[in-house]
Amino acid sequence: MRFLTPDGPDARAVRIRRRLEAVRADIRVWCRRYGRDPAEVRLLAVSKTFPPADVRAAAEAGQRCFGESYADEALEKQAALAGLRLEWHFIGPLQSNKTRRISACFDWVQSLDREKLAHRLDAQRPEDRPPLNVLIQVNVSGEATKRGVSPEALPALVEQVVALPRLRLRGLMAIPRRTGDFGEQRRAFARLRELAEALRSEDLPLEILSMGMSGDLEAAIAEGSTLVRVGTGIFGPRPAR
Ligand SMILES: *Cc1c(COP(=O)(O)O)cnc(C)c1O
């Protein structure tokens, strides 16, 4: 009864396109406000829990990079969309028993936070694919989350990751504690930026700062984000899993 549903597939595709355009417009406004070049800020559409049709709608509106948090769901979606040339980022918690599939099917892993997982992803990266782009996830909010390496342990992990030939370390990622306080949002993102600046060298540009989601985009752009991860802002509220 597709044609009788007021919120049918076509209406949804139109809404996704409009929201995507609105997010891009917001990014441009904030870049101007904080003296940033909008070309430096990549938009990752976080499609976890949303169906392949939603990804297709965003892709038809020009979106190329998509983020997923659950390996099995992502692989199904990738298979359904195999004809599109999309770039897939794994942004969810990494589990040892899923690294083989993730290393084979993703272009980027943003949530690397342990040496053991780095070794697995490196060993399991298929030979016919380029090295896997990785970001190290850093816990910039202390106790609030167990995910991400601590700032203190970060330099040692960086050293271990750069030694792995099938991984290419591109930068850092953070999911700070959720807060509506703009100043607190900025301080958490500034922390990540400073950590990257301290580790940066000619051989290790660490040019990617993956920070900012639907609720804290402006603060992230103000602090130098070069990759924002937006789910709700593009696809609407997430259905319960
Ligand atoms: C779900 C998720 C997002 C997107 O969050 P929204 O608030 O929906 O924009 C971004 N990053 C990570 C790591 C996520 O898990």
Question: By CATH's scheme, which homologous superfamily applies?
Answer: Alanine racemase
Average pLDDT, all residues: 95
Strand percentage, roughly?
Answer: 15-25%
End-to-end CA span: 25 Å
Specify the CATH architecture: Alpha-Beta Barrel
**Total domains:** 1
Shape: globular
- The name CATH uses for the topology is TIM Barrel
Q: Can you tell me the residue ranges where pLDDT is under 50 for at least 5 consecutive residues?
A: none
Strand and helix layout:
Blueprint: H1 9-33, E1 42-46, H2 52-60, E2 65-68, H3 71-80, E3 87-90, H4 99-105, E4 108-112, H5 115-124, E5 132-137, H6 154-162, E6 167-173, H7 182-199, E7 208-210, H8 217-222, E8 227-230, H9 232-235
Parallel strand pairs: 1-2, 1-8, 2-3, 3-4, 4-5, 5-6, 6-7
Helix pairs in contact: 1-2, 4-5
Bound molecules: pyridoxal-5'-phosphate.
The site of pyridoxal-5'-phosphate has 13 residues, from strand 8 and helix 9.
Structure write-up:
This protein is 41% helix and 16% strand. It has 9 helices and 8 strands. It starts with 8 loop residues before the first helix and ends in a 6-residue tail after the last helix. The mean pLDDT is 95.
In short:
It contains nine helices and eight strands. It has 241 residues and is an alpha/beta fold. The structure holds pyridoxal-5'-phosphate (PLP).
Q: Main traits of this protein?
A:
globular; 8-stranded parallel beta sheet; 9 helices; binds pyridoxal-5'-phosphate; alpha/beta; 8 strands; 241 residues; TIM Barrel
